[in-house]
């Protein structure tokens, strides 16, 4: 596993490096007890508000629109420039990242075997990145781990190939990179959809371990949605996108519904993750990796074009939701 620039403690690592999370800070015992007391109360409240909502079966309508994609000159990474105007057609997007529960339904129905299962190993973070024998979607951290108690968390250890297989089965697809950023931004030009800074009240990311109740992924919809009604676009798990990755694609990107279909070694992933610092969670940040690669911080969500025959009965409205049986 290896890919673009990742950040460590707010600094870039060399190209091709792994995401190197910051080492956890050792806090004095008294301070640590106070942090745990305050943060557990706060985050438990957030989680308890969301738990009754079965959002992992819902899709939200994202209306058509035009936005500025990427980052202005002198901001962000080189591969986020030039900032350019893009228009996208309306589409439906999963309200949440796909959960273990939903992915298990696919496996039970098809008998599909993931790339990590075929390889017999996958990447995990354990104070450093390493390939763990026996790590797969059922055992995210290795053979001794299980998803039995985290069925409402995003599925991880899924490659781009695995995500595409699920989408095909569900009659959906992965979002294009442009659709993903459009849905994430919600009309904003700031670093994140909620502003130019982000906190543990809005996302699950590295550096917030002492301030939340999760050691790894958080349950779907544990944090407030963005204005479109989409959850966890920043942090929790990286999300695979449909495009091949090209660091210079923005210089030749079409203005309407862009999709990079030019074959390349990597596929795009967006959004950052629980093991990643805030710089990589920005709306414009572009990550990528091999389509067969899997880790305990990779997941996905699906989209469905507006022209899907079964959903053409009435013109959809912004924020409208549909479930699996609708």
TrEMBL record:
GO molecular function: formylglycine-generating oxidase activity
Classification of source organism: Bacteria, Pseudomonadati, Candidatus Hydrogenedentota, Candidatus Abyssobacteria
The protein's name: Formylglycine-generating enzyme family protein
Domain Sulfatase-modifying factor enzyme-like: 57-304
Bilayer-crossing regions: none
Region annotated Disordered, chain positions: 305-326
